[in-house]
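Good morning C.,

I know you're traveling, so I'll keep this short. The sequence:
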Amino acid sequence: MTKNLIVIVGPTAIGKTSMSIKIAKALGCEIVSADSRQFYKEMKIGTAVPTTQELSEAKHHLIQHISVQDNYSVGNFEKEAIELIEKLFQNNKYVVLVGGSGLYVDAITKGLDDFPDIDPRVRTQLQKLLHNEGMEALQDRLKALDPEHYQKVDINNPHRVMRALEVCIGTGQTYTSFLSKPKKLRSFSVIKIGLTADREVIYDRINQRVDIMLEEGLVEEVKGLQPFESLNALNTVGYKEIFNTLNGEWTLDFAISEIKKNTRRFAKRQLTWFRKDEEIKWFDYTTNANMVIDYIKKNS
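The tokens, ready to paste straight into the viewer:
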């Protein structure tokens, strides 16, 4: 029996959850999340975790399964997800993997890249740079040392930017150069589906989603997480802006506009990442799920 991992990708708010559920129901299989923001049980509203109704329609895995206080890396995810996927393949020839986190999707479909050990003093120096000169100083340095990775990485995520800089500084080579090594062989075939739309449609859907998050209680959710504000998991769009409001630095209206702007930028980076992958078969987000399912069956 050929094992087929059906990967659903695309920018935030494009409708990946809805499409993945329809596919899973049609194929009688289960869903594994590769959305790195939805792993955390304390972060529900601001990460657009599937609704109770959606979760009841198809079995989901690796959603809200850890705490923001846990140390959980993409390496941890790769190990846990691969073990889970292999287990699910024992009962079905299909498994659906869904998410907009390109690095986490690649960890499953291609395997993580192997990087050399870096002198921990490099990280210490970068942390000092962040503290003294801010995020922009890190961004400028990465742009100078590895402009290609600068275009793909979430430049507002200090953990990701510092990791890339560590490799650049510690090895004297670009971070990108380590991403072209041979990939791990997997025991399953991969069928990649991308959902997309015109930029104006994506941006409008993002704006609507942010408004819904606020109606559902995003401010209250973030307020309950203030004791953990410094944790890396919470240094993410939708949370850091509300923290600025709660700390008296921004008005709520300005924070909302920044959430929408930063989410639009995030969606643009997601598309930049995924469009480099020639294995992805793209569908307009309005495409009937049956057409996507037919494509999967023909190619599995």
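Safe travels,
E.
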